[in-house]
Amino acid sequence: MIKVIAGKYKGTNLKVSKNSSVRPTSSSIKESIFNIINSQYLKVKDANLFSDKIILDAFAGSGALGLEALSRGAKFCYFIEKDHKTNINLKENCNKILDNKSFKIINDDINNLIKEDFFPIKTIDIAFFDPPYKYKYFDKTLVHLDSIGILNNDALIIVETHYRNQPKESKYLKKMQEKIYGSTKLILYKLCRNYDK
Predict the structure, then answer these.
(1) Signed CA dihedral, 163, 187, 74, 110: sign only
(2) Most C-beta atoms within 10 A of its C-beta, which of 3, 101, 167, 176?
(3) How many other CB atoms are there within 10 angstroms of residue 14's CB atom?
(4) Cβ distance 4 to 71 under 8 Å?
(5) Number of structural domains, the chain?
(6) Rounded Cα gap, residues 49 and 69, in angstroms
(7) The domain that contains 60 carries what CATH number?
(8) Which 3 state secondary structure label does DSSP give 149?
(9) Model-level pTM?
(10) Helix (H) or strand (E) holding 105
(11) Which domain holds residue 19?
């Protein structure tokens, strides 16, 4: 069992799938993720970073990262989870604390998404990528999301992966921070649109 650690849903227990590919983000790593985002986004102390933001929780699993962002004031979250059994717990976690106007669950591979899946919500401001450690297609996935027009011009993307993994460098992204916590590496990227189409 894991919990929401801050905001209006603080302390809420979340169910986690027993699927071996699901690797729940620990509370300490989750707090580090949000601290890293805060350090890039906030210029005013105690400002509400997530107010009115649109979130993408890719490889959502239990939905812990997206739910954490919603708890901290985000407006809406897309949860992408292709595993049907994992989706059952994800839906239960969302329905437990949210109304259906603040989230959408898409049960599909993220690389199959088309823009119509996101209508009528505006573009993504912050995206969380916490795939299985063996996932090797970060660049392909991010290029796909950018190509279908769902990422904001200055979107932030945070990747959680094994410390030995080094996602392929991309002309689409600017690396803002990289930190290692035990066996976990966190990388914060900012979308960069200065490239040739």
Answers:
(1) negative
(2) 167
(3) 23
(4) yes
(5) 1
(6) 9
(7) 3.40.50.150
(8) coil
(9) 0.89
(10) strand 103-106
(11) 2-191
